[in-house]
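Morning. Coffee machine broken again, so started the prediction first thing and wrote up yesterday's gels while waiting. Chain of 181 residues, entered below exactly as on the submission form.
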Amino acid sequence: MEKQLPPIWVIKCTEYPKDGSDGWHWRHYFSDPEAYSPDEPAMDWGGEDWIRSTYSMKLLREDVLAGHLAVCYQSDDAEYGRCILGVTQFHSDGKEDYPGSERYNCFDLIPPEDAFFLDPPLTICDLYETGCHPKCFGRGTQGTIFPVEARDFEGILRATARQSAAQKKALQKWLQRVSRK
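Came back before lunch.
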């Protein structure tokens, strides 16, 4: 019997926020050796300047746990537009950036080398063409962290398989490995 996947979340990143504040791109996690050491957890993601949504903070405080999966979504990739760059796993529960602040706006991720990078990324347009329209990418989802329903994640997997059979097989193997932990 195959083990069920842990809960799945989407972490949304924007490189160029409309308000002019500093943004971030998932490519820094996956391929920038100066951003994160590839063999150590990516520590202290988020913080006051990044996670401001009360809904995202509530999810981090009450629901997000170490071992849960995270879809790596970029809202403004220069080449692909709205896209999914990979899947990773939370290394910590949601936590406070400043202990005692009651503002759960921070978390740790597994080392980048242990995450799954999609090459090429899965565009949201390609995902929608398969008939999958996850709620987490729809209207009214301003914020950083949102749950991904199981059927929507299955749609993401189908769209990935449609894009590349080799990538489908590698992603399935990665998911089996992380679901055994």
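Residues 5 and 179 are 5 Å apart (CA to CA). Going to sketch it on the whiteboard this afternoon.
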